[in-house]
Amino acid sequence: MELIDTHCHLTFKPLVGRVRDVLERSKAASVTTCITVGTDIEDSKKAIAFAEKFDNLYAAVGIHPHEAKTVTAESIEQLKRLARHPKVVAVGETGLDFHYNFSPRPDQMRLFIQHLQIAKQLNLPLIIHSREAFDATMEVLEQFGRPLPEIVFHCFSGSAEQAKLVLQRGCCISFTGVVTFKNAEKTRNAASVVTLDRLMLETDCPYMSPEPMRKQKINEPALMLHTAKFLAELKGMGLDDFAQQVTATTRRFFNLPV
Ligand SMILES: [Zn+2]
Ligand SMILES: [Zn+2]
User: Fold this and answer.
1) Ligand 2 centre from 36 Cα, in Å?
2) What integer pLDDT is reported at residue 166 of this predicted model?
3) Burial letters for 208-220: b for 16+ Cβ neighbours within 10 Å, e otherwise?
4) How far apart are CA 165 and CA 98, in angstroms?
């Protein structure tokens, strides 16, 4: 069995010094491939450096909406250069975060559109972070020219109705361990309507360990096995069959070698 963690932050503090061990444990837990996701230019460079070092590790390069107010024309040029690296499989994460509003909304909007343009230009998929900004996110996608790049809504926290709109727009949806949390009924309802040809898995580690490991403060890719088991059960499927379909979707989406 083979699973792919489509969104982890191995460059973040609690994980950065022990990536080799983290990836060993990950493989032992059937999470054979990981994508480490950049959140600004420096972090994206680190993500690429790790991806160069390890076979089954890939990188995504992007600037998080939190950082939108610091972005210059030069950072966008740098991002474009980084995105051409052979181990970069996606642009992002970027999008809109109206929960924290660390950057003004117009800056977040502009940055989001710039990422869409880069993804389209380079023919790479885009990883969207959308928090308390569902309508605005959909509006940007509505206004952006056709065809859209391939898109995944990461760490999906919307309703089943919203999930349906995302699928109608032709996008994929990825779930973290949050779906296993007791109070996450809404996320489970959303997961129920997402077919496996559009569904992907992620840890978003070091945050949010899934149940029954929620007490483990530092999440890591190995724990994604619990999320996979949980969702397979939710879908009424065997784990092997579930993993095989979701991994096929993931390989196709990120254009990963088989
Ligand atoms: Zn995010
Ligand atoms: Zn993230």
Assistant:
1) 9
2) 98
3) bbbbebbeeeebb
4) 20
What residues flank ion ligand 1 with Cβ within 5 A? 93, 129
Which residue is associated with the tokens 């489970």? Answer: 188
Residue 109: predicted pLDDT: 98
Q: What pTM was estimated for this model as a whole?
A: 0.98
How many whole angstroms from 20 Cα to the centroid of ligand 2? 20
| 44: its two tokens | 């994206």
